What we know:
globular
Amino acid sequence: MRPIKITTFTGLFGILSPLVGFSTVFYAIRVSPWFNWSRNALSDLGVSGLSALIFNSGLVVTSMLLIIFSLGLLEYTNRKIGKLGSYIFLISSLFLLFVGVFNERFGIIHFYVSVGFFVSLIISLLVFGFYFLNEKSIFFSSLSLIVGIIGIFVWSLPWEGVAIPEAVSSLAASFWSSALGLRMMKIRKESSN
Length: 193
């Protein structure tokens, strides 16, 4: 039996995290007239100045919200494959925290945590796709697999800078976390009927 109050509460963080994340990223872009979508990485915003403060703190706060959401996913899912997807998503959230802490000035460390974030995010979505298929939830199975495939596709294309694949894969994952967060928030109403 799922702890309804915890799952319902943590579902909210699946919705809040993309709002905080994208708000801070776009604000950091707004104060950075030098930023170019086709030539830069989003992490370039986190190197120095006001944009670094906005961008890095935004990533840290977003990752903390996602960690709480991940803990809710652990309560929401059952079966080993659901738990596996939840743990991988938690790892992805921790990598995002490290992206905000270890900015590009940390060199190779930043590269590894950035790659770790996007790779673990995509893997978790694919695992969730199979979990929801097993649970007979065609909508969330399809959504998880489509978002995971979008991530793979967008990263397989040649880019001068990586801001576009970063934004596209993150936006797709944000739609997934918001939809699933909303679903988790509805559990209390369904269980009381």
